[in-house]
Amino acid sequence: MSTVKQAIPTIKPADVKPYNNIFGVLITIFGMIFLEFLVMGISLGVLPDYVHSRLGFSNLMVGVVIGLQYAATLCTRHFAGKMADTKGGRQAVVIGILLSALSGIFCIVSGLAIGIPSISLLALIAGRILLGIGESYLVIGVFAWGFILVGPQNTGRVMVWNGMGMYGGMACGAPLGIWLQSQSSITTSFAAIALLPIVSLLAMRMLPRVILSGQVKRLPFYKAVGLVWKSGTGLALASIGFGGIASFITLFFIQQSWQGASFAITAFGAGYIVVRIFFAGLPDRFGGARVAMISLLVEVAGQLLIWSATSGLAGILGAGLTGIGMSLVFPSFGTIAVKRVSAENRGMAMAAYNAFFDLGIGLTAPIAGLIAGKGHYSNIYLLGALTAAVSALLAYLEYKKDKVVFTNNSDDVIEMI
After folding, report:
1. For the chain, how are helix, strand and coil distributed in percent, rounded to 5?
2. Residues in domain Major facilitator superfamily (MFS) profile (predicted)?
C-alpha cells in the first residue's frame, strides 16, 4: 500500500483506516526524530564550552545562543502546524530536514572562523536559528503525518515513539559530539550536524504519501493556544528542569572539576526512555493530571539532587531522576490538552502545545545564564525544582477541577500505549 487515500481532515476519525504496517511507521518516525535530536544533542554537548571557553563570551551569551534555537522553534510552530494540516506532514518534514542540514553548514563556517570570535558567533547564531526552525517543521510534520498513517486509535503511539526519539537522540548526541571533538575537532562535530539530517531524508521516503483535502475549516493557532494553554503552561514549567541540564550542566561539571558531564544528559535520556517504554500507559489508566503530579514530584527531587550535589555521580543521578520525572509529563498534560481539540486540527493543536515546551526551554537558557552569574550554576537547578513544583500544583488543580476519567478506545482521549 503506497498511498493512504483517506485522511482525517475529510472524514470522521473513527472511520480512518490506518496504514497496514503501523510498526514500520513508528520505527521510521522514531528514526527521523532520533536523528534530528541527535543533531541537537551534539550541539548541546559542545556549544556551551565552545562559546564560553573557545570564543570567550559570557554565560549570558551561552544562554542566548542555546535559547535562540528554541525561540526560533516557538516562533514558527504556527506556520509548521498550518502547513502540516493543509499541505500534509510530509512537506513540513522535508522543509525541516533541509533547514536542519543548512544549520550544520553555518556551524562549520563558525568553526572555520574561530579566529574572529564575532564572525564565528554570528554564524553560530544563524545556525541555531535554522536548526530551531527545522526542528519545528520536522516534529509537527511527523506528528500530523503519523497521526493519519496509524489512525486515531493509535495516535498515542506516535507521541510515545516521538518522545523516545527526542530524548534518545539528545542523550546519545551529547557524548557523540564531545567524542567527535576530542578525536578530531569542533568542525567534525559541526559536520555531523550537517550530514545526519540527510539520513532522515532517506528514511522519510519509506513512509507513504497522504492526500489531504482542504474542505475542513482550520483551527487558527491562537484558538488552539486558548484550548491547550493550561496544560501547556504546566509543560513549560516542567521543561525548565531539562533546559537547565541541557544548557549548563557541562559548565557546572567543569567548574566543580567533575568528569562525565555528557553522561548527565545521557542519564536524563535513559531515565526518560525507560519510563516511556514500561509505564507509558499510566496517563490513560490513572488520568493525566494524577500521573503528572507524581512525575513532577520526582522531577523536583532530581533537580534538588543536582543542586545539592557534592560529586559528579550525584549530578548524573539527579539528571537521571529528572528524566524519569519528566518522561510522562508530556503525554500526561497532552491527554488533557488534545481531548479538547477535534482530530481534524490535531496538527495545529500539537503545534500550540509544543510551543509551550519551546517557550519553557527558550526562556530557561538566558534566565539561567543570569542566575548563574559568574559561576553559581547550582542555583539553576534550584530554579528547576521550584518551577516543577509549581507545575505539580497546576496538575493538582486540574485534577481537582475536572476529575477526568480516562477510558480506553476513546476518540477524545489519546491512548498512551
Report:
1. 80, 0, 20
2. 25-403
Distance CA 253, CA 261 (A): 6
How many helices, marked H, and strands, marked E, lie in the chain? 14, 2
- Does the residue 412 lie in any domain? no
Which CATH number characterizes residue 306's domain? 1.20.1250.20
Q: Which residues contact 413 (CB under 8 A, 6 or more apart)?
A: 284, 335, 339, 406, 407
Asked if residue 7 belongs to a domain, the reply is no
pLDDT of the chain, 417 residues: tens digit per residue: 444 443 333 333 334 455 567 788 888 989 999 999 999 989 888 888 899 888 988 878 888 888 888 889 888 988 988 888 778 888 899 999 999 999 999 999 999 998 899 999 999 999 999 999 999 999 989 888 887 887 766 666 777 788 788 877 877 888 898 899 888 888 899 999 999 998 988 888 888 877 665 555 677 777 888 878 888 899 999 988 888 887 788 888 988 889 888 788 889 888 988 888 888 778 777 778 889 999 999 999 999 999 999 999 999 999 999 999 998 898 888 777 767 666 567 678 778 887 888 788 777 777 887 887 767 888 899 999 999 999 999 999 888 875 544 344 444 443 333
Report helix angle 221-256 to 378-402, nearest 10: 150
- Copy the grid coordinates of residue 207: 513512509
Terminal C-alpha separation, the chain = 25
The predicted model scores a pTM of 0.72
How many Å apart are CA 115 and CA 338, to the nearest integer?
49
The count of structural domains within the chain is 1
Domain enclosing residue 191, as ranges: 17-205+218-402
C-alpha distances in Å from residue 158, one per residue of 29, 80, 315, 396, 414: 8, 18, 32, 27, 10
